[in-house]
Amino acid sequence: MERLLITGAAGGLGRVLREKLRPFARKIRLSDIADLGAAAENEELVSCDLGDEAAVMDLVAGCDGILHLGGISVEQSFEKILNGNLRGVYNLYEAARAHGHPRIIFASSNHTIGFYPQTTRLTADMPMKPDGLYGVSKCFGEAMASMYHSKFGQETAIVRIGSCFEQPLNHRMLSTWMSHDDFVDLIQRCFTAPKLGCPIIWGVSDNDCTWWDNSSARYLGWRPQSNSEVFRAALDAKEAAPPVDHPNAAYQGGMFTQDPIHKD
Ligand code: NAI
Ligand code: 15L
Q1: Exposed end of the chain (fewer CB within 10 Å): N or C?
Q2: Catalytic-role residue among 93, 116, 134, 251
Q3: pLDDT per position as a tens digit, 94-120
């Protein structure tokens, strides 16, 4: 790849992927509203608010792939979500349309379906059940990806990320966890697949207790290698598993189902 754009590059996932994807592109353009530190040899740093249409238009110019991680990543007020996740996604898709349709990987979230009970096994074509305004904003992003694909042929991998951290942080995440290495492998496959289309992919490792069926994305050849079971004993030693009626044991979105509508 000649130039890969990573939005949200100063965030938790962005900082990890900035390093791991370095060999994958001749140039990496990193953008955020937060501090990005110093540029390495093949990096370009661009401070850019995703809500600024003209700035996003310039940001996307010259890029042949976009990993879109930027935006609000937890439940917050509608005003904050509106700028980063709604305007931001619109601006990104309009910029991609103006600049030759670079392939996009959209970091969606399990909070698009967070109100499903943990007893339901989900395929990617089942109706959304968002668990808050953040989840609704990711449903909007998925709908934008689908519309730009149908209308303009824009290809996007919609990755409904479960919990992508070094390791699962609680018992719920034994089901939702995706390792960084599995995500890197998925990103590479999405950018190199001869034909991508606009699939919804569950961003989850090969966990024994997953709730999500990824068979519709098998054509990408992605076979996650990590399994959260290796962390179970340590988690059990740290804390008891939540009782069955606790949100973290009842709902796929866990505690996000309990968030209020924030007003500030
Ligand atoms: P994060 O919150 O650490 O990083 C998001 C970055 O976006 C931050 O650096 C922030 O400054 C930037 N940002 C926020 N508003 C912006 C704006 N208006 N303009 C430009 N930049 C803006 O989140 P994290 O964990 O790194 O997640 C990355 C993406 O993956 C997010 O879109 C998140 O919703 C999604 N995701 C992450 C999961 C995870 O387990 N880490 C799970 C599901 C989805
Ligand atoms: C998300 O969408 C969040 O961005 C992340 O911080 C985690 O909380 C994750 O979902 C999760 O559900 O574990």
Answers
A1: C
A2: 134
A3: 999 999 999 999 999 999 999 999 999
From the CA of 10, the nearest ligand is 1
In this structure, are residues 94 and 53 in contact, taking their beta carbons and an 8 Å threshold? yes
Q: Cβ distance 5 to 50 under 8 Å?
A: no
Secondary element (H or E) of residue 191: helix 180-192
- From 168, 163, 151, 191, select the one nearest 68 (Cα to Cα): 191
pLDDT (0 to 100) of residue 183: 99
Fold for the domain defined by 3-255:
Rossmann fold (3.40.50)
- Could you tell me the CA-to-CA distances from 237 to 232, 233, 242, 258 in Å, in that order? 9, 6, 13, 26
List all residues 6 or more positions away from 238 whose beta carbon is below 8 Å from its beta carbon.
Answer: none
Q: Which ligand has the shortest distance to the CA of 87?
A: 1
Predicted confidence at residue 176, as pLDDT, reads 99
As a whole number of angstroms, the distance between CA 210 and CA 110 comes to 12
pLDDT of residue 5: 99
Question: Ligand 2, atom 13: nearest CA belongs to which residue?
Answer: 163
The pLDDT value given to residue 3: 98
What is the pLDDT averaged over residues 1-28? Answer: 98
Give the closest residue (by CA) to ligand 2 atom 4. 73
Q: How many Cβ atoms are within 10 Å of 225's Cβ, its own excluded?
A: 10
